[in-house]
Automatic annotation (TrEMBL):
Membrane-spanning parts: 12-34, 46-66, 78-98, 118-138, 145-168, 174-196, 217-243, 263-281, 293-314, 334-355, 362-385, 391-410
Protein's membrane topology: Multi-pass membrane protein
Name of protein: O-antigen translocase
Keywords, sorted A to Z: Cell membrane, Membrane, Transmembrane, Transmembrane helix
CDD domains associated with the record: MATE_like_10
InterPro entries: Poly_Biosynth_Transport, Polysacc_synth, WzxE
Main subcellular location: membrane
Amino acid sequence: MNLLKTSVLNGVAVLIKTATMFILNKILAVYVGPAGYAAIGQFQNFIQMVTTFAGTAINNGVVKYTAEYYEDESKQQATWRTASTIVLSASLIFSFFILVFQKQLSIYIFHTDDYKNIFIWFAVFLPFFTFNALFLAILNGKKEVLRLVVANIFGSIFSLIVTTILAIKYSLYGALIALSIYQSLAFLVTLFLCYKSPWFKLNYLFGKIDKLIAKKFAAFALMAFVSVFFGNISQILLRNIVISEFGLNYAGYWEAMNRLSNGYLMLASTILSVYYLPRLAELNSYNLVKKEVNLGYCVILPIAIMGSSFIYIFREDVVNIVFTQNFKPMLELFFWQLVGDVVKIGSWIISFMMLSKAMTKLFVVTETIFALSILPITYLFIYYFGFKGVALAFFVNCLIYWITCSYFSYKKLNQGVIPNE
């Protein structure tokens, strides 16, 4: 697998996923409106935190060690057995607690208990959600790019169909149900693709946990917990800041801007997760790692720059096409958000290097600091620049993060984490 092949194959899946995402954005804009966008954002942050704690936190470790043990099938199988046992146990535990505290969760997330039944749906489908992510990680580590692409395409199609039907029929309530179940439906396809692979057997899953592998997973779990927990908590708090300062609709405009960014940057972020993590995990030379990172800057950053430039030039048309005229106030965010997106992709290249080399302490410290630092920076910039200060704060925070991570990660590598030659 090389960067060009991965880019082309993933490009197909990402184009389909991007198209479905933009169609869904239009449907949601029409049927739930700006205020509904804010509620969907809150629930998505909750889902990301729960699924991480319910098992997906170890998936980067699964990718790394599946790739690292490529020539050792027994170690690969021990990796999958340990991972699947952990994921099953964690997801069942969290499903139980979600069912017990469904009313309290609804009040905390949505400020009403009208949506408590949403959490029943989510709790029931949570194990399938987490196992879909685990099997995708296995395919990624095995470098089964074609099967991974097919799985992602079906996931996008399920997302479009389920969300469209439920949002049109039940508005916001239906959209929230769709968020709870569509990934679980994609699990059936991902499981089938793995099952048909000659290297995969169902009896490789579940059983005695390998303590050494579990210990290795712990480092990745800690990094994912910190990144996802603080990242999503900061998003929830930021959304509350915007609601407090400008109102619920403006929180929806900000959420729409974030969803737009996620859509057009999907190609770059997918290449990073599918190609970079297993590729960097294989490299045991400082010079080779540095060369691979520089290649990422030459290939991935230009994609981000071209995408953001195109979006900015046609920003008014984009808002009208992807959303509706009711979302026009989000135009104020475009410039600094798009510049920040490019910087964010640059920083991701470094953070994936940190993940691949299990720089746990450095990753945890930087993720925690910069996930939380966005809050005071946003308060400050809102005071001086109004609503666009939210996007300006995002850019500044990403830039400082990129510079800091680059300095300390290269310093750590040069000090002997891996040899220079």
